[in-house]
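Input chain follows. Return structure tokens only.
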Amino acid sequence: MWIVFAAFAVGIALGASGWLPAWARRGASVVAMAGLVVLLFAMGASIGADEQLLQNLGTMGLQAGALAGSATLCSVVAGWGWERVVGKSQISKSANSESANQRISESANQQISKSANQQIGESANSESANRRISESANQQIANRQITNRKSQIGNRKSAIGKGGSAVWLTALIAGAVLAGLAVGALKLLPVEFVDWLAPVTSAALGVLLFGIGIGIGYNRRAWSELRRLGLGVLGLPLAVAVGSIAGALGAGWGMGLPLNEASAIGAGFGWYSLSGVLLTQLAGASVGALAFLTNVLRELLAVLTMPFLARYLGRAAAVAAGGATSMDSTLLVVVRAAGDEAALLAFTSGAVLTALVPVLVPLLIRL
């Protein structure tokens, strides 16, 4: 397993170095996606080939629901507590950043405009000069309105594009798992292929984590936000991590699950694809399937509850519910529920939790 960790670390270092050209980063993303598809297919095939596991899917669904509900609840409580105790200043700092930049820009524009008007007034006080000033001001207002309108249209197109990408990714993940289930259940895999399945999936896992590491390392926006907001902003994702793992531990203990398995599942933080394939490799198909279902349900639960949480418990509680997904798939939901002020906090929290998943899941399952 140390080779997989090494691939992840090397990927982060390469991404952060800035040495990789754009085509190499895109290629790494494509290769990582291919590795993910192979791993999900293999996980589905392992589940489908295990008749006893297939018969227990109903019971597993109930266990996944309990784990997801408890992990989400404890994450929300932890996020709410962080905001109440130390987080308000960090949220205000994140929220005021963009508005401060906007005020600086507006102030500069006003100073420039004032200076220009003074110069024009000094050089020409006639009615003709005043008319030119008026026409110029009207033209600037019209141009600003056009620019704002284009920006709004661009933002909408970007949101639509992200939504389409999320739908495509979800369909790809579901298709890979369902195809593997069908192949495994129908016994379509040759015996020779089954013998090669373990080393192939191990190699695919290394490729996947290498590509993910490059993406994390190159995500300069997340790193710059961490540096600008300071170490205090790390309190929210760390609180969410502790709450998620504690919640899964409590639910797992109540259902008689091994505590190392329950804690590792809770450390998926909603990233169902990676947590599922990691635990399939490390602990078997049944644990991997339970992790996959648990974190799928956690993301669904987050989407359904975020508006309520933002309204009654605050922005941090809504962000906490999303876990690792608050930087991508549930980011739009967070922004709509909690306002634009929550965007940077959600993105940073999700990025930190995303980086913790490949580290904590293997660590906890081996305890």
